């Protein structure tokens, strides 16, 4: 008989079992619950807690993480002739006792894996009662920390002692929610003979054809040894193939060959054709079970060839080197059960609009949903998946050790077939932490996770998905290794080889700039690959004011401080602004100044890193998204609205760019061509006064090969200003322009931006025409102030005197009013931060 599956998502309740819940919550008794879900969502729906994202409510709902919660439902069942009845949980958050009809089925302690229980012995005909008793995560983590031994971490609560999303306990951009609940589907599976327990699929091109392998693990019902057989069918893009193999034992490998396949490419490099794969299991001659995957044919490797500088770190897809234009990803909601496929698609399409080609799933979050990776495959967005370890030392002892192996096995197998997945990484910043953050002394001989990063994970990837590439962590340098032998300086063992922040190979993270240096010092670094760097800025004005009740609203008002999680965040914002602009006195101008400085900081860094290709072959910005309304490093805020930083990414990662870069004592025009066509044209270099008059100029013909960079030194007569405060350098190839200002805005003669604005309604919203009568720097329309749904497609536009630009503002409803758009609160520029 074919396996049947029935979701058990109806008629759940949740109630307080123990802990310091407010009287009105405990007295409410059984509260209607949503499954998949989390207790916060149910309490919000019942009106029993305020919105934790709003104002200063975070502290008001912190008690939720100190309470034990019990979920309960009933379902009816009648014998169906199947030999096995399994209760399956795709995800439980996190420490749970599971009972059916009062009988204990098991205890779980890992958010990052699934669980299956044979319930045949306790299932009854008629009504059955499922009870999920969740232990409070905060006291559990604290108790486990004492049991395992306290280890170094950057935040007070021991997220390292529980297999739960680390940022659920709060981060320097994240609210602490301490969730509990059945956060993924729950179902009853009925089957006989055998079922498919695991499928690992890989697709490998070979010349113009390709091969699909499926490694299959089956489970038998324990009542029969019926013959079993597997069929593998592949179809798509006018190609189809099928194979069959008998199964002896519980494992089998099956493969099919296709004579002609189309390659899957990252966005910007080609199309994303995919092929449907079906693995079907027959037992005793009858259909028993099936599994489905969607694959793409591509080759992937990371070129780490030794060179004069160290070792390359270059992604190569289908033999084509790829300059990685990336962003780091955190859970898109601090209550992750609210993130559905539609929301993920909105975020990914924003990423594509910003000219991105890779999303790194950061190790303090989650193994994301199947929808996440399927959308990435469909849209051509590359993915990089960290194993879930972040910024802390992790115990290698039980019970964590076995749980970590199980979650790693499950998620490697689940993700391995996705063509978008190009790298798995052992951890985020643990290798650096061991070297730089005083761990060796504080560990005093305790384990810290090296076994996972240097032994377990590479072994499991090699066993389960040898086509995947793995590195032990990020940052990481080629040649690093591990020696467990204790030394007086490091009783917990020693990492061997280069330092993890060695710029000559592998990945680096650059945080000194944000923490205590000016962002112009990004130009001191020419690493092979930058996997993290970023600059803070507040969310959009609508998001900020919609989430706070502060009156008056100031950078230090109570709600603002709750929504600023970085250590001395506002101090760093101010210190990072002052080299470039003076500190504004009013809140709205402060908001604009910090948003603009964030965009300028990251944009300048990206221009610099890209200018050094192919020495530097990737930059992954921290971060794309937010999980709630907060001042953070994100380009898209917690209400899904793009910040000016979004446009800085879009501009810096455009397929073709021209930037002006310092090279020693000289300036150079660097022309980046990330297209498949040769770019030829005339490079015009002009030194202009702020009034638009040309002071010096030169033109040269250039030809830039596909996927490459050309550098042209600027003649000293053009590059040397007569008056640095009132001159700029312009480099153009056709319509693509780069600018270099010789003085910081605060030290320059930048005057009032005289900009005329007209607007007309169009089908997509409002088309705005801006015409400058004077130099207008970084002109940006903060249109969310006029309509919460509005978004300007272009921003950070610098106009020379006499120039015009058209900007489409997308929004719902009628056209926006020109006078409202021209309001200086909406029509913003860098000029406003220099002149009163």
Automatic annotation (TrEMBL):
Residue span, Beta-mannosidase-like galactose-binding domain: 21-184
Uppermost EC category: hydrolase
Record's catalysed reaction(s): Hydrolysis of terminal, non-reducing beta-D-mannose residues in beta-D-mannosides
Keyword hit for Ubl conjugation: no
GO molecular function: beta-mannosidase activity
Domain of life of the source: Bacteria
Pfam families: Glyco_hydro_2 (PF00703), Glyco_hydro_2_N2 (PF22666)
Region feature Disordered, mapped onto this chain: 479-506
GO biological process: carbohydrate metabolic process; glycoprotein catabolic process
Domain Glycoside hydrolase family 2 immunoglobulin-like beta-sandwich, residue spans: 195-298
EC nos: 3.2.1.25
Keyword annotations of the record: Glycosidase, Hydrolase
Family statement drawn from the similarity comment of this UniProt entry: Belongs to the glycosyl hydrolase 2 family.
PANTHER family: BETA-MANNOSIDASE
Descriptive protein name: beta-mannosidase
Native source species: Microbacterium telephonicum
């Amino acid at each position: 008989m074919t396996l049947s599956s029935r979701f058990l998502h109806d008629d759940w309740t949740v109630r307080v079992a123990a802990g310091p819940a407010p009287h009105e919550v405990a007295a409410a008794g059984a509260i209607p619950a949503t499954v998949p879900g989390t207790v916060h969502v149910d309490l919000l729906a019942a009106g029993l807690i305020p919105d934790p994202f709003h104002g200063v409510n975070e502290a008001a709902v912190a008690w939720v993480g100190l309470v034990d919660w019990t979920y309960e439902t009933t379902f009816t069942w009648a014998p169906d002739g199947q030999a096995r009845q399994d209760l399956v949980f795709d995800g439980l958050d996190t420490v749970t006792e599971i009972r059916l009809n009062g009988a204990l089925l098991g205890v779980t302690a890992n958010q990052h894996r699934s669980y299956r229980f044979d319930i045949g012995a306790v299932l009854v005909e008629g009504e059955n009662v499922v009870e999920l008793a969740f232990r409070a995560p905060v006291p559990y983590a604290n108790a486990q920390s004492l049991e395992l031994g306290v280890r170094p971490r950057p935040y007070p609560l021991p997220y390292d002692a529980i297999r739960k999303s680390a940022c659920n306990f709060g981060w320097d951009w994240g609210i602490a929610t301490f969730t509990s609940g059945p956060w993924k589907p729950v179902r009853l599976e009925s089957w006989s003979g055998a079922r498919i327990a695991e499928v690992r699929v890989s697709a490998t091109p070979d010349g113009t054809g390709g091969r699909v392998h499926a490694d299959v693990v089956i489970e038998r019902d324990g009542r029969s040894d019926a013959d079993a057989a597997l069929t593998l069918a592949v179809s798509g893009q006018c190609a189809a193939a099928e194979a069959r193999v008998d199964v002896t034992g519980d494992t089998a490998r099956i493969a099919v060959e296709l004579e002609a396949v189309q390659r899957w490419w990252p966005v910007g490099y080609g199309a994303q054709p995919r092929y449907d794969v079906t693995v079907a299991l027959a037992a005793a001659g009858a259909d028993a079970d099936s599994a489905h995957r969607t694959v793409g044919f591509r080759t992937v490797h990371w070129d780490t060839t030794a060179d004069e500088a160290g070792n390359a770190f270059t992604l190569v897809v289908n033999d084509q080197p790829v300059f990685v234009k990336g962003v780091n990803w955190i859970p898109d909601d601090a209550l992750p059960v609210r993130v559905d496929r539609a929301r993920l698609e909105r975020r990914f399409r924003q990423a594509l609009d910003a000219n991105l080609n890779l999303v790194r799933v950061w190790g303090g979050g989650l193994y994301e949903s199947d929808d996440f990776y399927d959308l990435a495959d469909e849209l051509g967005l590359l993915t990089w998946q960290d194993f879930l370890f972040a910024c802390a030392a992790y115990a290698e002892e039980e019970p964590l050790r076995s749980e970590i192996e199980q979650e790693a096995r499950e998620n490697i197998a689940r993700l391995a077939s996705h063509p978008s997945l190009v790298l798995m990484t052992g951890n985020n910043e643990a290798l650096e932490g061991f070297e730089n953050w005083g761990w060796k002394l504080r560990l005093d001989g305790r384990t810290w996770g090296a076994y996972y990063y240097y032994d377990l994970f590479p072994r499991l990837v090699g066993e389960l998905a040898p086509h995947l590439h793995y590195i032990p962590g990020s940052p990481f340098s080629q040649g690093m290794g591990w020696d467990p032998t204790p030394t007086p300086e490091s009783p917990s063992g020693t990492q061997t080889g280069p330092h993890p922040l060695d710029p000559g190979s592998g990945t680096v993270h650059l945080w000194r700039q944000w923490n205590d240096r000016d962002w112009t010092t990004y130009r001191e670094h020419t690493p092979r690959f930058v996997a993290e760097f970023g600059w803070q800025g507040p969310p959009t004005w609508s998001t900020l004011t919609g989430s706070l009740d502060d009156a008056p609203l100031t950078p230090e008002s109570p709600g603002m401080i709750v929504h600023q999680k970085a250590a001395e965040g506002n101090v760093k914002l101010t210190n990072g602004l002052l080299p470039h602009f003076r500190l504004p006195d009013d809140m709205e101008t402060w908001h604009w100044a910090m948003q603009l400085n964030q965009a300028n900081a990251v944009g300048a860094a990206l221009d610099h890193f890209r200018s050094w290709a192919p020495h530097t072959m990737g930059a992954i910005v921290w971060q794309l998204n937010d999980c709630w309304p907060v001042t953070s490093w994100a380009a898209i805020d917690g209400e899904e609205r793009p910040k000016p930083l979004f446009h800085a990414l879009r501009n810096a990662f455009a397929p073709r760019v021209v930037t002006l870069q310092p090279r020693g004592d000289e300036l150079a025009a660097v022309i980046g061509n990330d297209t498949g066509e040769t770019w030829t044209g005339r490079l015009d270099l002009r030194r202009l006064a702020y009034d638009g008059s040309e002071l010096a100029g030169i033109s040269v013909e250039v030809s830039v090969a596909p996927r490459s960079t050309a550098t042209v030194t600027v003649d000293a007569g053009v590059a040397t200003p007569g008056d640095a405060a009132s001159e700029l350098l312009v480099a153009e190839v056709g319509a693509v322009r780069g600018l270099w200002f010789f003085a910081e805005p605060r030290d320059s003669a930048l005057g009032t931006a005289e900009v005329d604005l007209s607007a007309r309604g169009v089908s997509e919203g409002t088309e705005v025409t801006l015409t400058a009568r004077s130099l207008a720097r970084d002109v940006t329309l903060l249109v969310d102030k006029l309509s919460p749904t509005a978004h300007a497609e272009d921003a950070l536009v610098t106009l020379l005197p006499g120039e015009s630009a058209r900007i489409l503002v997308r929004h719902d409803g009628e056209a926006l009013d020109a006078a409202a758009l021209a309001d200086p609160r909406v029509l913003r520029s860098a000029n406003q931060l220099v002149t009163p």
